[in-house]
Design a protein that fits this description.
The chain is mainly alpha-helical and 178 residues long. It is 66% helix and 0% strand.
Length: 178
């Protein structure tokens, strides 16, 4: 189970590295889906660049949710539709604005709208939004489970066994009544 890290700095770094690797694997698939759908739409329709990008981003968001929930963060708390999904959608929408804002600025602000330029700026937008998404998903959406109190905690003196086999401070069991 994924829990907030309370071990050594090296253990925390290793845990974060594993999380980043899993996030990157799912995100890599999402990037392929995003760019694939984007280019498919751009080459088969007359849809404008940013509109095609928004559609591609939404398809990638759905793909990524499944990957994050069932692979990257499968051991995290599950709050489902009540909390997790609305937060995922909200943070994904912010990421969508970041991602497509970069493409919009390049396309309409600077006039860079050739096939290579749109893919380069789409990729830059994805990278920029990914930093935000990683932070927001791990912090707010797929929260780590709290550390159980019994794991590695010292046993209080009142629970330590006495020489007679009973917990210190406990009374002997009363005889059964007839």
């Amino acid at each position: 189970m994924s829990r907030p890290q309370q071990g050594s700095a090296l253990e925390r770094v290793r845990g974060l590295a594993r999380e980043v690797a899993k996030f990157g694997a799912v995100g890599g698939i999402g990037v392929l889906v995003n760019l694939g759908v984007f280019n498919l739409i751009r080459h088969t329709t007359d849809l404008q660049v940013v509109r095609a990008s928004v559609i591609a981003t939404v398809v990638a968001i759905v793909t990524n949710y499944l990957g994050f929930r069932y692979f990257t963060y499968r051991d995290r708390a599950r709050t489902g539709g009540s909390r997790e999904l609305p937060l995922f959608v909200a943070f994904s929408a912010i990421g969508l604005v970041i991602e497509n804002g970069v493409l919009y600025t390049a396309t309409y602000g600077f006039g860079w709208d050739g096939p290579l330029a749109t893919n380069v700026f789409k990729f830059i937008g994805i990278g920029t939004a990914t930093v935000f998404r990683f932070w927001s998903y791990r912090t707010w959406v797929f929260k780590a489970l709290p550390e159980p109190e019994s794991a590695g905690a010292p046993v209080p003196a009142s629970v330590v066994s006495s020489p007679r086999g009973r917990a210190a401070g406990s009374r002997a069991p009363e005889p059964a009544r007839k």
